[in-house]
Amino acid sequence: MKDQPILTYIVLAVLILAIFYFVYYKPKGKELQNLKAERIKIEGDVEKSKKMKRELDKIEAELESMNVTLRNLEIIIPQKKEIYNILRKIQQLANDSKLNVRRFAVQKEKPQDFYSIQAINIEMAGNYHNLGHFFDELSHFSRLFNVDNFSMKTLAKQSSTATISITCVPTTYIFHDEKVLLDKAKEQKAKKKKRR
Questions:
Q1: Global pTM exceeds 0.70
Q2: What integer pLDDT is reported at residue 47 of this predicted model?
Q3: Exposed, middle or buried by CB within 10 Å (0-12, 13-18, 19+), for 166?
Q4: Which CATH number describes the domain made up of 80-180?
Q5: In whole angstroms, what separates CA 5 from the centre of its chain?
């Protein structure tokens, strides 16, 4: 019986430990596991967010690069409202180069997706040096030009200022403004709806 109080104390200690384990430690362990799982989920979300941020930064850098390219292209590709000033400048450039402009016919504009092609039939007479000066000045023009269908013939009646006859088709590109692009998009949507 002497060992009875010690045994009682041991049973009481085990009982207190069991109560502590089941009432406090085990729920806190579950809570700790839930917090660890939540932390892992949040860390995964943070990694996804960091990856998305890197992709967003990359896209924003590409967008800025494209905007710079667009601004550079807008310099060499005129807007619709500028085309007549440019055509006048070309005609003036031919006159300044001492070329006799016999024909200057603006062709019908050919619309593309976000730009249009504007071609000009030009017939001129002059000498080879003046023609070279004209094309040199045209190449330094701030707008983009291609010269197609170029032909050169000697004149039957030559003079000191006119020895050759030149025909060519300089072509430039006209950038559509956002309003035109939006109108085209609306037209295409309307056409698709009609087809259905």
A1: no
A2: 93
A3: buried
A4: 3.30.70.60
A5: 88
- The token pair at 185 is 């998009």
Radius of gyration of the chain (CA): 40
Angle, helix 128-139 to helix 83-96, in steps of 10 degrees: 150
**Which candidate, 90, 78, 87, 73, places its Cα nearest to that of 137?**
90
Residues 81/175, Cβ–Cβ less than 8 Å: no
Q: Is 171 helix (H, G, I), strand (E, B) or coil?
A: strand
- How many percent of the chain have pLDDT more than 90? 19
Contact 114, 181 (CB under 8 A): yes
Of 32-46, 68-82, 119-133, 156-170, the range with the lowest mean pLDDT is 68-82
Determine the Cα–Cα distance for residues 161 and 143; give it in Å rounded to an integer.
Answer: 29
Residue with tokens 């300089």: 170
